[in-house]
Amino acid sequence: MSTAQRPLPHSFYRRSTEVVARDLLGRDLWRLLPGPRIAGGRIVEVEAYFGHEDPASHAYRRTPRSEIMYGPPGLAYVYFTYGMHCCLNVVCEPGGTAGAVLIRAIEPKRGIEEMAERRGAAAFNRKGRLRLGAICSGPGKLTQALAIDLALNGADLRGPEIWLSEGEGPLPDAKVEITPRVGIRRGAELPARFIVPDSPCLSRRSGSTRLDRRRS
DNA sequence: GTGACGATAATCT
DNA sequence: GATTATCGTCACA
Known about the structure:
- By secondary structure, the protein is an alpha+beta fold.
- It contains 4 helices and 8 strands; from the N terminus they run H-H-E-E-E-E-E-H-H-E-E-E.
- Helix 3 (112-119) packs across helix 4.
- The structure holds a DNA duplex.
């Protein structure tokens, strides 16, 4: 296994959530699917979530669900939301300090057919042609494409079910942009969303300022 | 291209 | 009982 594919060590995650989030861009996310087949791609969009002082974070309050965010780094935190979607986070910071990074989008690199199949009709255009930018361009989309559900909550991010690898990262600052977090209750949109603006696989097009319709 | 809306269940209060 | 770190579809431009 080359360096670019080998799982990142737990020490990668045992840093501040913000630093890990930034460093995650350009890394690769991999998933072992039945077959066995490996599917995954390059991380192009993430968001940092903190602890007690971050009202948008599940760790704002310490509950059974958020307990994992207070635990040791290098594990997956998967939660279920809106009655139908799972979202994947990586737990950061040393044990005792809460923090996690939400993986919001990846560029498919491998196992593209398998991922598209799991995404169903949304992965194809009217002519039946593959839409690469619609497969993993959102936190709920990528978990569907990679068959990530609550069974993976707490999984070790060194594999074998799911892992992150060095990939091409870390990316130079010129390739990275920081924006407010999206999908958050107004007032908590910290500038903690890290993206690769050149990517065609982001959850929102660059410059899209669509406000959330949630009430105050 | 944009914006509104409903689906649907785990988790929390 | 209320909320939700979302998505696909629909109407309209």
